[in-house]
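Why run this: before we spend reagent on co-expression, it is cheaper to look at a predicted model of the complex and decide which construct boundaries make sense. The entries below are exactly what would go into the expression plan.
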Amino acid sequence: MNFAESFRQNFIEEDRWRYLTDGLKTTLIITFFAVIIGMVLGFLVAIIRSTYLRTKRLLIPDILCRIYLTVIRGTPVVVQLLIIYFVIFASVPISKTFVAIIAFGINSGAYVAEIVRGGIMAVDVGQLEAGRSLGLNYRQTMVSIIMPQALKTVLPALANEAIVLLKETSVAGYIAIADITKGGDIIRSQTFSAFMPLIAVALIYLIMVVLLTRLVNLLERRLASNDKR
Amino acid sequence: MKKTITGFAASLMLAAMLSSCGASAKPNPVHSIDDLKGKTIGVQLGTTGDTLAEDVEDATVEKYNKYSDAVQALKQGKIDAIIIDSDTAEAFLRNNQDITKLSEGYADESYAIAIKLENTALQSEINGALKTLSDNGTLKQIKDNYDSENAGKSAYTTPEGTDHSKGKLVMATNAEFPPYEFKNGADIIGFDIDMMNAVCDQLGYELQVEDMAFDSIIPAVQSGKADVGVAGMTVTPDREKNVLFSDTYTTTHLVVMVRKD
Amino acid sequence: MISVKNLTKDFGDRKVLKGITEEIQKGEKVVIIGPSGSGKSTFLRCLNLMETPTSGEIYFDGKEITKLHDKEINLIRRRMGMVFQHFNLFPHLTIKKNITLAPVKLGIMTQEEADKKAAELLKRVGLPDKADDYPASLSGGQKQRIAIARTLAMNPEVILFDEPTSALDPEMVGEVLNLMKQLADEGMTMVVVTHEMGFAKEVASRVMFMADGVVMEQNSPDKFFSNPESPRLKEFLSRVL
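The model came back. Tokens follow.
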């Protein structure tokens, strides 16, 4: 079978390209919402952890956060996904995409938390003292002084985490979600050719990652120019 | 902040408790093949069950990597039915009291061994061996050994002094298909394995089993990674475009598995 | 104005302050000197509760502040400015924003009032054209002058200076000390931890010598420097003068 024929069989016949476009849509939806959940959760955990480290307050929440970080970072995301699907939401009628969003969001949150905590702790403790010495309370100091500085340093790392998450969602197929990887698998199972569907899936991921990386670099450069002022 | 975290932990625990005390799955909505219309059907990706489910009107087809995951999802009410080979269904039904199969099934299908397209020499060798095994009753003996009533009574063993001088024959399979091929501890056993052992003993090969995803088996045979693909594989026109098939070694049919009422 | 009774502070096993009782009156300019590790910075940082004392009491305007809740401590801190060794300007904000952030956030001034105040203060510290620059573009001396302006924006009743010139290149020390002198002349109550003996001689109303976590000796500047009593102070002065 020549290239054109193989291409036609894998993508054109029976509209098989739709497995890829529909899969891409699912992958993007899962990634997008998981990134949002991950960021919210990550910032929350990071703030609790750094508050405990800096002020020794919030001990109980800090312990909970540490358990969360240990469990999530100590187990593979596929296992977490299966646990959330088959154990936690065992008999709950719930959309699988939602399950995947929750699973990847919770997973990403742990990594975001450590990135953001690193950023917060990297802000000189003198900044906190300066804010407090002016009569600002801890929260006001965090919001107006510490977080803006921390955010600037961690933004590139956060963007990279989002890129990693995009690729990690490729295991969503384990709970029979037709994401882009599964889309390729479905074509493969129908045409029995490995080359076309796998290369197509790889290319789509690659293009998305390259585009996102470009964006991140642009962002980084803008932030760097901000520093020179 | 404290509240959010405890709230989150509490809801997780609540969900875990809900599941562990087994809040019962929704009642079975499928009582005939016609009922499948518009339902959610679970299959293993790339199986004939998958192909068939795709043709059911308005149905949502959930393509799992393994039938056992689909069975889990069926029991939990995440899907309404599973389309699956009858023998494999029997194996699952034996271990799961809360599911059953519909009495009406689909038409008979033939299982055969997949061989690389150009390799007609191997095809005729295997066909010859299958004929011998069928004629001398070995095939029936092997099948009986995996039958629920006579299971384990007539295991196939390689006759002493068998010649394996022709070297290895690599068989690609997907060990998620009881009773055809499944894992028993570290070993992969089943009807297909015993049958291929018998074929190899006839032909003077030494069998080597390679486990992989079901939808990787045909590509593995095409690319020469495996000499044969044996995995309860039904002969379909689509597959015949990509591989040669041996003569049929057994027939089976697809059935619909559902939750018990 | 500030009175301290039996103040102690431990960091783990290390006793940094071993019982200090002191009184600081309105309008006083107290300069604290002493070898490093003597506890002088810790003492200063206890006054506005940047460090929580281990035991003892601190009164501000007759009110005990050591047992207050966070909210009330924040109110006290508005009235006690602090200037740090490393300036601690907010690098992500313009100079003007550095100065106006606290008064606006705390609802003491509107942004316009604060902007006006910032312009006045910038003129006063001699940097009227830096309002829209970022801290990174300033020299060390300029940064410390901005830090002082930031503190002044809160209209504090007393300013605590924690080694304000120690991180500066020698040629920039003068401009900061001049500004502090100017504040002193205007009647600001000041507590200054420093190694600048010239400043102590010229500006202080009282000089305090701290060593080993206690106030060993204190006096008016002329007597303090011309007639030191304890051998520790004599030895210290002989090394720094």
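The mean pLDDT of chain A is 91. Chain A touches chain C at residues 124, 126-127, 129-138, 140, 144-145, 148-149, 152, 227-229 (CB under 8 Å). Bring this page to Monday's planning discussion.
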